[in-house]
Description:
The chain has 98 residues and is an all-alpha fold.
Amino acid sequence: MLFLGWFHMRSRCDWCGLIYEREPGFFLGSIYVNYALTALLTTVAYIANMATGAVSEKWMLGLLTAFCVLFPAWFFRYARSLWMGFDQYWDPRAEDKD
Length: 98
Ligand SMILES: [Zn+2]
């Protein structure tokens, strides 16, 4: 398990001892992942609504504002997990164990 709570992360893997935060600021990249997906989904939803006119602009503004606050909070854990996966795939480490 990576997380103890919704936002609180373990420092290392119980099984193999891998230290999750490789260096200070390591998880900054996960914020980019989270932001990019939030911006992409918001843009797609906005363009889709512009094309179809399914929801009024006032409602769309409210819905997307709520989405831009709630989605990144929900996706926080997944963004960090993805970031660690990307990092481990492209720059594997085994020597950080101690
Ligand atoms: Zn492990």
